[in-house]
Design a protein that fits this description.
The protein is an all-alpha fold. It has seven helices and no strands. The relative contact order is 0.11. This is 4-carboxymuconolactone decarboxylase.
């Protein structure tokens, strides 16, 4: 791994941890095998070390766009993960609602309906953890 790649990976790991939290990233790293370790490196460098680390947009803005895209594409597990991550990105429940309303108009009501359902389940879990 050259220095540029090492720096991108280190930056990506920092950003990934700041958005998804240490427990999530630790689990991903601890369960990586020789088979999927290259994939973990790729997403850490590309998604987190390149795209999420770019200047110009806040983590809140990136979070909102990411949620809309994931919902539109029907990536349910990723929607749930990124709804949880809003605790770290500053995207509010109102922001998420607005993003999913856009999904309904531009990607279809069924996709938005599913995303709202997932978000409500995650919010309930988050609320329980905070108050329970």
């Amino acid at each position: 791994m050259d220095d540029v790649t090492k720096n991108r990976y280190r930056t990506g790991l920092e950003v990934r941890r700041s958005v998804l939290g240490d427990p999530h990233v630790d689990r991903a790293e601890d369960t990586a095998t020789d088979f999927d370790r290259p994939f973990q490196q790729l997403i850490t460098e590309a998604a987190w070390g390149t795209v999420w680390a770019r200047p110009g947009w806040s983590k809140r803005e990136r979070s909102i766009v990411t949620l809309a895209l994931l919902a539109a594409l029907g990536h349910d597990e990723e929607v749930a993960m990124h709804v949880r991550a809003t605790a770290n990105t500053g995207a509010t429940r109102d922001d998420i609602c607005e993003a999913f309303l856009h999904v309904a108009v531009y990607a279809g009501v069924p996709a938005a309906n599913r995303a709202f359902k997932i978000a409500k389940e995650v919010f309930a879990q988050m609320d329980e953890a905070a108050h329970g």
